[in-house]
Design brief:
alpha+beta, 7 helices, binds protoporphyrin IX containing FE
Length: about 140
């Protein structure tokens, strides 16, 4: 496959064994131009610089996402299995877990799921308990 050959020829750093390099979101954010374009998809960092001109969806959309977490846009397009396979060629490392949790996008989501929803659930349960207990006693 042509795509595979290109990936190997460029000697992708993280394709071998051993732990993958870890990057913070700040490091990724600096690579946001056609000179150097990195993006994050599902917590993994991809260097798409040499893919810009080849992307079937165009260079524009990749540059728009460069330096950022592109998971949502990548998934919204409904990329094929082939496209997902291609990701491997551009993989350069993982996102630092702490820097990822500082990402305003994900941390807002984490806040809702880890705190607000359980607190709300507990409140509803508490109210229901009170309501039924009081009701039960009075009748
Ligand atoms: C390294 C990451 C990416 C790879 C390897 C990739 C690969 C591909 C491939 C192979 C296609 C052809 C259709 C398919 O097979 O699904 C495609 C289409 C497309 N991609 Fe990407 N893509 C990447 C990231 C993105 C991102 C971040 C966006 C942001 C919006 C995007 C937007 C699109 C669009 C709009 C199309 C055209 C869909 C169409 O015409 O039907 N892609 N991509």
């Amino acid at each position: 496959m042509e795509g595979g050959r290109r990936g190997e020829a460029a000697g992708t750093t993280a394709s071998g064994d051993g732990p993958a390099p870890v990057f913070t979101l700040e490091e990724v954010a600096k690579r946001n131009s056609s000179r150097e374009a990195w993006l994050v998809i599902h917590g993994r960092v991809y260097d798409v610089t040499r893919f810009l001109a080849e992307h079937p969806g165009g260079e524009e959309v990749l540059l728009e996402q460069a330096g950022k977490d592109a998971t949502e846009s990548f998934e919204d397009v409904g990329h094929s299995t082939d496209a997902r396979e291609m990701l491997k060629q551009y993989f350069i490392g993982e996102v630092h877990p702490v820097s990822a949790s500082c990402n305003p996008q994900t941390s807002t989501k984490a806040f809702w799921s880890t705190w607000l929803i359980p607190i709300f659930g507990a409140l509803v349960l508490g109210l229901m308990y009170r309501y039924y207990m009081v009701d039960g006693k009075s009748s």
